[in-house]
Design brief:
- The structure holds two protein chains of two kinds.
- Chain A is of the alpha+beta class.
- Helices cover 17% and strands 27% of the residues of chain A.
- By secondary structure, chain B is α+β, with helices and mostly antiparallel strands.
- Chain B contains 15 helices and 22 strands.
- In chain B, the strands form six sheets. Chain B has an eight-stranded antiparallel beta sheet with strand order 13-12-9-10-11-14-21-19, with helices on both faces. In chain B, strands 3-2-1-4-5 form a five-stranded parallel beta sheet. A three-stranded antiparallel beta sheet of chain B has the order 7-6-8.
- The N and C termini of chain B lie far apart (53 Å).
- Classes of the chains: A alpha+beta, B alpha+beta.
- At the A-B interface, helix 2 of A face strand 3 and helix 3 of B.
Chain lengths: 191, 469
């Protein structure tokens, strides 16, 4: 048996709701380790993963194609932005910058490309409700291929794939609101 | 129907202020943010933040479509525009109406009629409100002479195509007028490709006085007294106070009546401000313009009336009648506000973006700080430079100013330059204390004297004093 992304989300939600500090789960050779203490769970094999994974919200889960990346290779969540800064500094910006850098790193190491929303708006997978989606999972795309529409008040922004590759996941439900910069698709780039 | 969830379509201190009012009203708040404002204080304190676009305001805070899409996508029932950005664009209330959203402000029609200076001037004149002695465009020196004789000297000649202080010539008496007109018209032709001029009586010592009004959807209009914003630099207000104690009470009463009358004529709904210029020497006043939104300086009125203007805006937008009548509005003491900007006064007030490495707000009776700053805050270079408003309230002007002086001296800002030294110089000057300042006083008198002091080593010890620009 193997864990799916939704299994992991359910586990995370259950752990979040629990009073436990740590959780380790072994299932048919797969291991899941969760911690709320900001440190890896006792006896953890994941060293130096930093505290953020512990506090992860379900929405923060890496997209499925990225889930296999060893978390130990991620940079620590706080980088130069916070070094030497006064104690009162709210390091949200530094954390977010680190997150963006780790996303870029992930893209480089995994050969994936995230298609992001050019604007706030409604996410539409098809040119109109009766038409088939622009792209399906597993479909091969060229950089100029349209992959979706982000609608802002009847203004239809066509979004293009941006790279040559294969669509690996659709991150947003059709018709949902997306924010500027939100990931819409993950595309596995061709070498 | 009272509001349930409001989209705050702004940033900075006013976004925080509106979110606070929503919390006080039991309304959920959603704030729109650009990419560089994701970690802003407004984003942290709102119930939800939605990133609507990149840093450039034209693709974020100024984009009606994105703002309305964010409101609809997050289930909001109203939009509060704050000040600046979309607050006086009739397209926003129009888009709200089309999409079943309430707009926290007046109708598109009111914004159009009140916001167009010429149109508002005509409405004011039709109500018998003085609009300033002057002329329509003048073609020749003879006509200019006739009009100047009628309105009285000194007069100012203004290029019809000029603006922001450009293309203006001051004429002290009849002897120089014809020649000045010819020169100015020729220069305007050369500079703007348009030689048309108009003429106004020049007010040597003008005071900027404005009246706060509140109007509900049921025809009730009240005023909350006036504010004096005469300490300005290049038409930017530096210090605002309420009430305008340097203006005679009868004049202030006339302004209140004129403002309420004008609001009624505009079918005004919400919070608005009617601005006037008052001649400090004669007490004559003239209508300037209407601001169809909440003002930066609204807190001084809140401090002396005890009325929360932003909460009132939300109640009005939710359809509630005003909770008080004119006779319930009473003034308590005096309040003064200063705008602390991230600017370097000794370098021509150049904006000073960067990281606020240390931010400590003063504490003390009668002090209020409206801000979006915190230690570690990165001021993006994309927007205006307002960091905080420091507001002091006291039983009288003296006490309010003492408290403000102390508050400003205890405000700790490190990492960026601020206008605090300049603001201290204003509120501690003899002219400002005596209330004899006017709208050109900062540039004409205060800044040259500060520069002279700095040159002779006369600056107060330990207190940096800005040089003149």
């Amino acid at each position: 048996m193997s864990l799916t992304a939704s299994d992991l989300q359910a586990l995370l939600a259950a752990f979040d709701a629990s009073a436990w500090d740590e959780m380790r789960l072994s299932l048919a050779g797969e291991q899941v380790q969760l911690s709320k203490t900001g440190r890896p769970p006792a006896g953890s094999e994941i060293a130096g993963a930093g505290g953020r994974s512990a506090a992860a919200e379900p929405g923060d889960l890496p997209a499925p194609p990225l889930a296999g990346v060893d978390a130990a290779r991620l940079p620590p969540p706080v980088e130069e932005g916070a070094v030497g800064a006064p104690a009162e500094v709210a390091s949200v910006a530094a954390v977010e910058a680190a997150e963006r850098r780790s996303e870029a790193l992930l893209e480089n190491t995994t050969g994936t490309h995230r298609v992001t929303a050019p604007s706030v708006g409604l996410f539409w997978r098809a040119p109109d409700p009766s038409a088939p989606p622009f792209v399906e999972i597993g479909q091969r795309v060229e950089p100029d291929d349209p992959v979706c529409i982000v609608e802002v008040m009847k203004l239809f922004n066509h979004v293009q794939a941006g790279v040559t590759g294969t669509v690996r996941s659709v991150e947003i439900e059709n018709g949902a609101m997306v924010e500027h910069g939100q990931a819409l698709f993950v595309i596995e780039k061709e070498a | 129907m009272s509001l349930r969830r409001v989209l705050v379509a702004n940033r900075g201190e006013i976004a925080v202020r509106v979110i606070r009012a929503c919390a006080d009203e039991g309304i959920e708040s959603v704030v729109v943010v650009s990419e560089v404002d994701r970690d802003s204080r407004a984003a942290l304190v709102a119930d939800r933040a939605v990133c609507i676009g990149p840093a450039a305001a034209s693709s974020s805070y100024l984009d009606v479509g994105r703002v309305v899409a964010a409101a609809l996508g997050t289930g909001c029932d109203a939009i509060h525009p704050g000040y600046g950005f979309l607050s006086e664009r009739p397209e926003l209330p129009e888009a709200c109406a089309e999409n079943g959203l309430a707009f926290v402000g007046p109708s598109a029609d009111t914004i159009r009629r009140g916001g167009d200076k010429a149109a508002a001037r005509r409405i004011a004149a039709s109500l018998g409100i003085p609009v300033g002695a002057g002329s329509d465009t003048i073609d020749d020196a003879t006509t200019a002479q006739e009009i100047a004789d009628r309105v009285g000297y000194p007069v100012v000649l203004k290029a019809a195509a000029g603006g922001g202080g450009r293309g203006m010539v001051l004429v002290e008496g009849p002897e120089g007028l014809a020649q000045s007109f010819e020169n100015a018209s020729r220069e305007a032709q050369a500079a703007f490709g348009d030689g048309r001029m108009y003429l106004e009586r020049f007010i040597t010592r003008a005071r900027h006085v404005e009246v706060q009004v509140l109007a509900d959807q049921h025809g009730n209009v009240v005023h909350l007294g006036e504010r004096d914003c005469s300490a300005q630099r290049r038409y930017q207000k530096l210090v605002e106070e309420a009430p305008a104690t340097s203006v005679p009470v009868e004049v202030r009463r006339s302004l209140h009546e004129a403002a309420v009358e004008l609001a009624r004529a505009l079918d005004y709904v919400g919070a608005g401000t009617v601005e006037f210029v008052v001649d400090a020497d004669t007490g004559q006043y003239a209508f300037l313009e209407v601001n169809t939104r909440v003002q930066v300086e609204h807190p001084v009125t809140e401090m002396v009336t005890g009325i929360d203007i932003v909460r009132a805006q939300l109640q009005i937008a939710g359809g509630e009648p005003l909770r008080f009548r004119q006779s319930d509005v009473r003034l308590d003491g005096h309040a003064v506000e200063v705008r602390v900007n991230a600017e370097n006064p000794s370098r021509g007030f150049a904006p000073s973006p960067g990281t606020v490495t240390r931010w400590v707000e003063p504490v003390g009776g009668g002090l209020r700080i409206d801000t979006h700053c915190f230690g570690g805050y990165r001021i993006p270079p994309h927007y205006d430079s307002l960091l905080a408003k420091v507001i002091a309230h006291g039983t009288d002007r003296e006490q309010a100013l003492r408290r403000l002086d102390r508050g400003l001296r205890h405000l700790v800002v490190e990492g960026v330059s601020t206008t605090v030294p300049m603001l201290l110089a204003v509120i501690d000057s003899a002219d400002f204390r005596a209330g004899t300042h006017h709208t050109r006083w900062v540039e004409q008198d205060l800044m040259p004297s500060l520069a002279a002091d700095a040159g002779t080593g006369g600056a107060r010890a330990g207190q940096p004093v800005p040089a003149a620009v």
